[in-house]
Write a structure and sequence with these properties.
It is a single chain. The strands form four sheets. The protein has a five-stranded mixed beta sheet, sandwiched between helices. The protein has a three-stranded antiparallel beta sheet with strand order 4-12-9. By secondary structure, the chain is of the alpha+beta class. α3 (49-57) runs antiparallel to α11, α7 crosses α15 (281-287) and α8 packs parallel to α24. The chain has helices spanning 3-6, 13-34, 49-57, 60-71, 87-95, 103-106, 124-138, 146-164, 179-196, 203-206, 213-229, 234-237, 241-245, 254-271, 281-287, 292-323, 325-340, 352-355, 359-371, 409-413, 416-419, 430-433, 436-446, 460-469, 474-479; strands at residues 74-78, 81-84, 100-101, 177-178, 381-382, 388-392, 395-399, 404-407, 480-484, 492-496, 499-503, 506-511. It has one domain (15-511): Cytochrome p450. The radius of gyration is 25 Å and the shape is globular. Pfam families: p450 (PF00067). This is Cytochrome P450. Its cofactor is heme. Keywords: Heme, Iron, Metal-binding. Heme binds at residue 457.
Length: 512
């Protein structure tokens, strides 16, 4: 018996069925009508399927850029969703307090079952309160061990390269090194040292992914990306089944095991809190009255966000430098000149304050973040209920209340109107060639690399310090020569929730 046949003899059910259909059609018509003035890909007025498919395939960052380039600085990507490539619009959205994080997206980036951290929190008041508690720990003012902790881990990375991975092409000895893994070990050891207040996971010392923490994290990101694309993220937060889906700190392997190690480290510090004299990130969190599960959640989030984003930036900029001989030579020349002139000591790790005084190094770092933004999720915000008017290229544009609007990092940081016709090229010299007006416009967009306003990345200072000290500081380029092992396909990369999972970045390292 068909569905329609089953309705025979129940004439009263037809009006109910018709009412539901009519209600659905009216709802779709209202949503379509509300954003009718915004252009977008075919079908975006009725479905977000195209965007979701690109999230599933890991191509959302490139697709969003194409959408903005084709349909304008604010374009439609779904019945209720917009995306912008305008830095002015995005700064406005991130500054005005009436805009809130969109729950459909940020709930998908929760790590624990029904527990928010600073990045997933959609309640603006709770977010701001938490930010006040943890922000001092990310700064050098309260975290006095910040720079020295990075230095220790960097020395371990240098020692690992010298003792195990040097090649000697002149003698025909090639010893490929997977730089993607070594960088991940470095950033994971740095952030676990800072976040847990001990010598970290020890991945560099072991030259291994301890307990498969990194692999498990990558697998988790892939799964979360698939769930997000299929609109199934709610399952992980469901009252009963969610506990079975989400990792648990009691797990003996995988991501849950990393959670357990993190939580045990926090418990150890709390037991000795009255006598603890350390001045690190965890001590700062505790001093600012962050306790219990909330403390553990923020430390865990620090490990995840602080490792993957910085590792992505380091890998990408290293690749671009190695692939561009002109940039490679100029960077080495600046480093060597600084040492000869005594601006940089001959031994030890360069200080952050000194690194910031090397102009070409700074241009290389800015250009790396511009060409390869390490975070490319659209991080959507909900427009206030009454709507809002923004300026796009000097013209007022009304955003209806209740819709969500995200941004395309790739479109914004490769905007030819800001960076010139060669915006897709890695050319650090653009930061010197520009006149004052153009340079100001470039810097304005560059500042958005780490977010803006109340949503700005708390780990910005840590990431910048690692960028300056690690790949581009004088040690790596003073003592080693670098070559890409496979220029045709230098690495395997996948976008998962806006973060890049990068593997098989094989390089040849030789002593200078």
């Amino acid at each position: 018996m068909t569905f329609l046949e089953s309705l025979e003899g129940h004439k009263w059910q037809w009006p109910i069925l018709a009412s539901f259909v009519a209600l659905y059609l009216v709802r779709m018509a209202v949503r379509y009508h509300r954003l009718r003035y915004f252009r977008g890909p075919w079908g975006s007025g009725f479905s977000k399927l195209q965007y979701d498919y690109k999230v599933y395939t890991g191509e959302a960052h490139a697709w969003c850029r194409d959408v903005n380039e084709k349909y304008g600085p604010i374009a439609r990507i779904g019945p209720n969703s917009l995306i912008t490539s305008s830095s002015n619009v995005w700064m406005h959205i991130n500054t005005k307090p009436e805009y809130k994080r969109s729950k459909w997206y940020f709930s998908a980036v929760r790590v624990e079952h029904q527990r928010d951290h600073i990045f997933s929190q959609t309640d603006t008041r709770l977010h701001d309160e938490r930010r006040k508690q943890i922000a001092p720990g990310y700064s050098g003012r309260e975290n006095l061990e910040l720079e020295s902790s990075i230095d220790y881990r960097l020395l371990e990375l240098l020692d690992l390269i010298r003792t195990k991975y040097l090649s000697d092409p002149s003698r025909g000895y090639i010893n490929p090194m997977d730089l993607s893994k070594k960088i991940q070990y470095f950033t994971m050891d740095v952030i676990s040292t800072l976040g847990m207040g001990r010598p970290g996971f020890g991945m560099l010392r072991a030259d291994a992914d301890i307990d498969n923490y990194i692999r498990s994290s990558e697998e988790g990101m892939r799964i979360a990306n698939t769930f997000s694309a299929l609109r199934l993220s709610w399952i992980a937060q469901a009252p009963v089944i969610g506990k079975l889906v989400c990792p648990q700190s009691t797990d003996v392997k995988g991501f849950g095991a990393m959670m357990g190690a993190c939580f045990r480290a926090v418990d150890e510090r709390l037991r000795d809190a009255d006598h603890d004299k350390r001045r690190d990130m965890l001590a700062s969190f505790i001093r600012h009255k962050l306790v219990g599960d909330e403390l553990k959640s923020e430390v865990l989030e620090t490990l995840i966000a602080g490792s993957d984003t910085t590792a992505g930036a380091l890998r990408a900029t290293m690749l671009y430098v190695m692939a561009n001989k002109r940039v490679y030579v100029k960077l080495q020349e600046e480093i060597d000149r600084a040492v000869r002139e005594g601006r940089v000591s001959g031994e030890g790790v360069i200080s952050y304050s000194t690194a910031k005084q090397l102009p070409y190094l700074q241009a290389v770092i800015k250009e790396g973040l511009r060409v390869f933004p390490p975070v490319r999720n659209i991080v959507p915000k909900d427009v206030p209920v009454g709507g809002d008017t923004v300026l796009v290229e000097g013209k007022p544009v009304f955003l209806p209340g209740g819709v969500d609007i995200g941004f395309s990092a790739l479109a914004m940081h490769r905007d030819k109107k800001v960076y010139g016709e060669d915006a897709d090229s890695f050319r650090p010299e653009r930061w010197f060639d520009a006149n004052q007006g153009k340079l100001a416009a470039m810097m304005k967009v560059h500042e958005l690399s780490f977010g803006h306003g109340r949503w700005q990345c708390l780990g910005r200072n840590v990431a910048q310090m690692e960028l300056n000290k690690a790949i581009f500081e004088r040690q790596l380029f003073r003592y080693f020569d670098w070559a890409i092992a496979n220029p045709v396909k230098p690495w395997d990369a996948m976008n998962a929730l806006g973060l890049f999972i990068i593997n098989d970045f094989l390089v040849q390292v030789s002593a200078r």
